[in-house]
Amino acid sequence: MQSPTLHEKFQTTYETRKSREHMKQGKVGRDNCVTSNGLSETTQTHMSDHEDEQCSQKLEILQE
């Protein structure tokens, strides 16, 4: 096995960082907003306020 080139290493780091940014911006778990326990963990952790609002609205609609 040859060691990864600098470019490959950079690419991997970049991908990881990008997916972390994604999570920070609340893009993770937003679509499965409502789960069996109300909110998925990723949704609670990563959603922005605006998306959070939408989620609560969805929940209220479901509970009526």
Automatic annotation (TrEMBL):
It comes from Arundo donax (Giant reed). This is Uncharacterized protein. Residues 33-46 have a biased composition (Polar residues). It comes from the Eukaryota. Residues 1-30 have a biased composition (Basic and acidic residues). Residues 1-64 are annotated as: Disordered.
